[in-house]
Protein: Pantothenate synthetase
Amino acid sequence: MIIRDIATLRQTVRRWKEGGETTGLVPTMGALHEGHLSLVKQARKQADRVIVSIFVNPTQFNNPTDLATYPRTEEADIALLGDADAIFIPSVDTMYPAGFNSRVQVMTMTEMLEGAHRPGHFDGMATVVTKLFGITQADIAFFGEKDWQQLQIIRRFVQDLNISINIVACPTLREADGLAMSSRNRRLSPQARAIAPELHATLQETAAQLRAGTPVTEALAQAKTRLARSGFQPVDYLACCEAESLTSINDVFATKYDRGSLRLLVAAALDSVRLIDNIVI
Structure:
């Protein structure tokens, strides 16, 4: 069922809830791949009904060119979503009608890492996700761990704003060579695609060094050098952070922290395509 207006979706969800059924939401911006579909499969396991939203949200793009070139493959996306009970595909005017003048902002967590390089991105993301939660009245929402900072920000504002929804994190799906699945991967040239797995390999090697006792600053410096030599330029950030707060850890030994409490996060450009990834330490 394809739904493009809010009233129809709300009526549909109301019927489900009156029947005692739970609703799961998988928010996407389309250009779907197996990573997205894994979220839908998980939603099917945990909810009676599944809504997948497809909306390229303009307010989370700080670069107009990035918005203009973001892949839009609606017909192909719909064909992949046989497991969904409803596919919500609103227009920009539906989500941001005339006079819209509000936003959701999470302080501190949005100012580092991605936020430092994409001003306003997380405000736009938090606002549209909050709207989707309100529109769908979903009981559970599913997000991938590849966008780790986004996931922590969503958890934060859900808690802070007392939004009644359960956030489920799903593991990052990877290609056979380790590259995290992403809609952006299709923009890589064949040469860049061959180099791209080095991003994950570098994270793995760095995590192993940190577990072995290499000082954080030394391990990160070596990793940045390795990425630059491989062709990643620029490396926007490569950080060792506390997993939930995203606080950067510097000049200490990762071994001082509980196993699994730290995360390595990276963003780097390859062939003018910006890639992100993260792994647990």
